[in-house]
Specification:
Length: about 270
């Protein structure tokens, strides 16, 4: 009996020619049939935006002699929606996003990240998903690092995917959010983590244009302290962080303080 060849939909908000995506494709194709679809340009930090107010175009492009992929002139979520529902290569057994050039850690950032948005979108379409990101120098946030920088991370990512392919995810699990430290080796420790609240503090930086008009650039300063057990703490300790992310964003009703707060609001509304 022939062993099943799993099918993976691979995406990355850094675009079709990002080295993190290309290196991950080469590692994954050894264990599965891999189809690539990405936004046609870098669409970082756009969250789970879905394009509903303009038309979309999808093109098949050649990345290199042996690699082809699709691009869509939309968001990462658009790419996954189209890939899972319209590509001829479907159905897919898993969606893999990454490897993103830059970390995607903390609740704040995973709700901002296009990479995590792709994994979220897959989850809401009941397809298992994993998002991979890697710490890089800030100069490489929007300029892809050399392929060699992703070599170890892609090897480890492919091993994780291989272990999870064909496994049933719990219904409440959205995706695994995996982050690699900058100084990664094959001996780097792995920690199962929860999400820190924030990993960056954003603020507007003011500049002057040639006409002396003010303009602004939003920039995030790194937070360098976090509670043990969180993804940020693991990265600061040069560990690989694996965070299970859930679909349900609701607060736990069993929390005593929450119950008191909710009851006080409900009582006030009933008196109106």
């Amino acid at each position: 009996m022939t062993e099943k060849k799993y099918k993976i939909l691979l995406t990355c908000d850094d675009g079709l020619r990002s080295n993190g995506l290309i290196m991950l494709y080469k590692a994954l194709k050894k264990i599965a049939r891999v189809t690539i679809i990405t936004p046609h340009i870098q669409r970082s930090a756009e969250g789970k935006a879905i394009t509903i107010n303009q038309i979309l175009h999808v093109e098949k492009e050649v990345i290199s002699e042996n690699i082809q992929g699709y691009t869509i002139d939309g968001s990462s979520a658009d790419a996954v929606i189209f890939g899972l529902q319209s590509l001829s290569e479907r159905p897919f057994d898993m969606v893999v996003a990454g490897i993103n050039q830059g970390l995607n850690i903390s609740s704040h950032i995973i709700l901002t990240s296009g990479t995590c948005a792709a994994a979220f979108e897959a989850a809401y379409m009941n397809v298992p998903a994993i998002a991979f990101s890697m710490d890089v120098h800030q100069a490489n946030f929007f300029v892809t690092p050399p392929k060699e920088a992703f070599k170890v991370a892609t090897e480890l990512a492919a091993k994780m995917v291989e272990k999870l392919l064909g496994k049933q995810f719990p219904p409440e699990l959205a995706f695994f959010n995996v982050n690699f430290p900058k100084q990664i080796t094959r001996e780097t420790l792995i920690e199962i983590t929860s999400l820190a609240d924030r990993s960056l503090t954003f603020k507007p930086i003011k500049h002057k244009d040639p006409r002396e008009n003010d303009y602004y650039f939003l920039w995030g300063d790194a937070i360098l302290e976090a509670p043990p057990g969180t993804d940020l703490h693991a990265i600061l300790k040069n560990k690989i962080s694996i965070s299970p992310v859930t679909k349900n964003l609701s607060f736990l009703r069993e929390n005593k303080l929450f119950k008191q707060l909710l009851l006080s609001v409900a009582d006030d509304l009933n008196e109106i």
